[in-house]
Design goal:
This protein is mainly alpha-helical. Helices cover 68% and strands 0% of the residues. The N terminus is likely disordered. Its main location: membrane.
Length: 563
């Protein structure tokens, strides 16, 4: 039995093609219009490889007329196979090589059986048959040709449902944006609104605590919001999304309820500092991680919409506290904030659902990243800047009420003004970053914010304080939005992005923990607001200068390069 008989290819049922012998007996050959060959842009695609191997099987001793018909058959093969491959894999349109026997050797350990050969031919949807061979061949193995087809067929199979591309729209996808919006509302919105509580604790409570001691409550809350995110990131990768978001949705309202009945400083520190801080960290990670699973082409838009929840939280919570505290007391005003947090967290729990389960868990640490000068400068610069960046949000209301810049009632409104301006700070810098690069936008924002804090030392009127709140709020929004985006551009291997971002959050959390209490200690010691403002502005400017070194190590001193 010949080699051809051992590897017989099932043929589709089509009318028999006219042989050369019929034409030699007087039958006139019908001219056949050649089918244009459609090929992808790649240097060697699956169809080209299969056509080349099939050409080696043809009878080279046939008459020129037969060769013309065989070439037409191969052109037809290219047309049908390209139609099939482009149906399931759009990469054919972009010129990517799907199969190359030199780069991706055959991995099949044994020749395919008859059923496998039949499935390959059927899968390619061929309505033609290969030209019959005029003689057996010994040098070419038909099974190797089929191996190429079977291997490519495996590569071109339709993606599994879980690996499908993001929908980039639809009701379910936009419900995830809504859920992430309220996660930001209850996490970063809570952190942005602590200044209202700081002002109340300093001016109206019976604790008689120093500003430094009171600021520890907000600092611990901000610190845990980032630190818990470092831990919940791997838990999210392990598939515990539902447990994480439910824990956060319970802890934040529970912390507010417990704060409403606290009468001692240490009780408020536990309830508002630790409990709410841990809840913030549990809500922050799902909000940041779930949106890329549903959107790939609208990332700037959906992330901007979701992140604006933090600005709204920074407006609503201080406003509710200010208005209701005078009417129904601190306890019920805080409970009202807790009810708002519970209602919005319920929306997130009800609608948010991850599409994909991460295939591999990320590492918790990547210490080798600190050997890269760019990453080290970037992380160090942000950590230094975070020491002073939160100081104005903590002490702006207290400064206005204690120095006579504004009345005690109006001093509560400076913080909502600042947080409202941060909404625009999240949008406009993102537009500029798309053109000039996120690091090129982040550095001027950081330096300008530090300069504003230093200019704050000369402001002694209510109008000037409002202007300062608007501009500083704009910078704070841009600083928070550009920091993680800049890290993406500085990460050579995006598979380590989650780990590197966790390390960055850890360092920034240390800055948040140390900054406001240190500023309060300076104020308590020197009795001078100028010293506090210089501390805030100096640390932010110093952080911006370190970020310049990160840019230089990345692209050099040229100002025209995008970074």
């Amino acid at each position: 039995m010949s080699s051809m008989e051992n590897n017989q290819i099932p043929q589709a049922t089509i009318p028999p093609r006219r042989s050369a012998s019929n034409r030699r007996h007087g039958q006139k050959r019908i001219p056949r219009k050649p089918v244009p060959q459609r090929r992808p842009n790649s240097s060697r695609s699956f169809t080209q490889t299969f056509a080349w191997l099939s050409g080696a099987l043809l009878d080279r001793d046939s008459t020129p007329t037969v060769q013309e018909e065989e070439q037409s058959q191969l052109n037809e093969f290219n047309r049908h196979s390209y139609r099939y491959t482009s149906q399931f894999d759009p990469r054919m349109q972009s010129g990517l090589t799907l199969y190359d026997p030199e780069l991706q050797p055959n991995r099949l350990s044994k020749p395919p059986d008859a059923s496998t050969r039949s499935s390959v031919v059927d899968a390619l949807n061929l309505d033609w048959q290969l030209p019959p061979l005029s003689r057996p061949f010994a040098d070419i193995d038909v099974s190797s040709v089929l191996n190429v087809a079977i291997e490519a067929q495996a590569n071109l199979s339709p993606p599994a449902p879980g690996d499908a591309p993001p929908p980039n729209g639809g009701l379910i996808a936009w419900l995830q944006v809504l859920g992430a919006f309220f996660c930001y509302f209850n996490s970063w919105g809570t952190m942005n609104s602590f200044g209202a509580f700081q002002t109340y604790y300093e001016t109206r409570s019976d604790w008689h605590r120093s500003p430094s001691e009171i600021s520890w409550i907000g600092s611990v809350q901000s610190f845990l919001s980032l630190m818990v995110g470092v831990v919940t990131g791997p838990l999210y990768d392990a598939g515990y999304f539902r447990y994480i978001i439910c824990a956060g949705g319970f802890l934040v309202p529970f912390g507010y309820m417990m704060t409403s009945i606290c009468t001692q400083y240490w009780q408020v520190l536990l309830a508002q500092g630790f409990v709410i801080g841990i809840g913030n960290g549990c809500l922050f990670v799902p909000a940041a991680a779930i949106l890329p699973q549903y959107f790939s082409t609208k990332n700037p838009l959906v992330n901007g919409i979701a992140a604006s929840g933090s600005s709204l939280g920074g407006i609503v919570i201080p406003f509710v506290m200010t208005r209701l505290e005078r009417q129904i007391g601190f306890g019920w005003a805080t409970r009202t904030v807790g009810f708002i947090a519970a209602a919005t967290a319920t929306v997130s729990i009800a609608f948010m659902k991850p599409r994909l389960t991460p295939k591999s868990q990320r590492k918790l640490l990547d210490l080798a990243a600190f050997k890269e000068p760019t990453y080290s400068y970037f992380t160090g610069g942000l950590a230094i800047a975070f020491i002073g960046f939160a100081v104005p949000t903590f002490y702006l209301g207290t400064f206005a009420s204690t120095t006579g810049v504004a009345s005690e009632e109006f001093s509560f409104y400076y913080l909502p003004i600042l947080n409202a301006a941060s909404t625009f700070g999240r949008i406009i810098p993102a537009i500029l970053a798309a053109k000039y690069g996120p690091l090129n936008v982040l550095i001027p924002i950081c330096l300008f914010a530090g300069s504003l804090a230093l200019i704050w030392t000369t402001i002694k009127t209510s109008a000037g304080t409002i202007v300062f709140a608007i501009f500083y709020g704009f910078c704070s929004g841009g600083f928070a939005a550009m920091s993680p985006i800049a890290l993406v551009t500085l990460t050579p291997d995006l598979r380590t992005l989650g780990t590197r971002m966790g390390q960055l959050f850890f360092c920034c959390a240390m800055g948040l923990l140390a900054g406001p209490p240190s500023a309060g200690a300076i104020l308590n010691t020197t009795k001078s607001w100028i010293a506090l403002k210089c501390f805030a502005g100096g640390t932010v400017v110093a952080g911006g200068l370190v970020l310049i070194f990160a840019r230089v190590s990345r692209v050099g001193w040229s100002l025209k390069k995008k970074a």
